[in-house]
User: Fold Ribulose-phosphate 3-epimerase from Rufibacter roseus.
Amino acid sequence: MPHLIAPSVLAANFGQLAQDVQMLNQSAADWIHVDVMDGRFVPNISFGFPVIESIQKVAQKPMDVHLMIVEPEKYIEQFRAVGADTISVHLEACPHLHRTLQQIKATGAKAGVALNPHTPVTLLADVIQDIDVVCIMSVNPGFGGQKFIEHTYRKIEQLKALLLETGSDCLIEIDGGVNQQNAPKLLAAGADVLVAGSFVFSSANPVQTIQELKTIKI
Ligand SMILES: O=C(CO)[C@H](O)[C@H](O)COP(=O)(O)O
Assistant:
């Protein structure tokens, strides 16, 4: 399967969000990545339902919603109602992860699990068959524009081995500090989906930058 590019609108210009989403519609982006932060699970607050609903009205690509919030199970149906196609919760925020994954699937959305940099992929072994996307955080969640953590390559390889061993077809998504330099190595290690925020939106030509990420050959 060709790899997917999911630009993160966390790095968009919120004063012209509709234009930035339209730019993504015209680009080679596959998904639109939407980062929700609550000021509790992570030390930052981004945006909530009304903003996501506004994005959804313009977006012509699936919305990949990454919940960096405590007690995500309280809001799954609402995120689906405002247009989330994939809903990712953090393993560290879910004491009843299996139940939360079933809850996401019951809405019709794809179920994702995100892992902080310190969380081993082996903790997913008993729920891997219930996951559509594993989001490996390659920065500590909460802020865009941070430095990529090199240990991520090893985690991708470990997760890839778990997927092969269990026959799972779940996608491996990498989120944080992704750029043109590390993207080929991430794909070679087994990544399927690259999230890129600041690298795309701070570039002179975001459409071309997305195209360049999309056409990387390994
Ligand atoms: O989840 C996130 C932060 O918690 C962002 O999606 C991630 O940091 C992407 O931004 P950048 O490409 O600028 O690092």
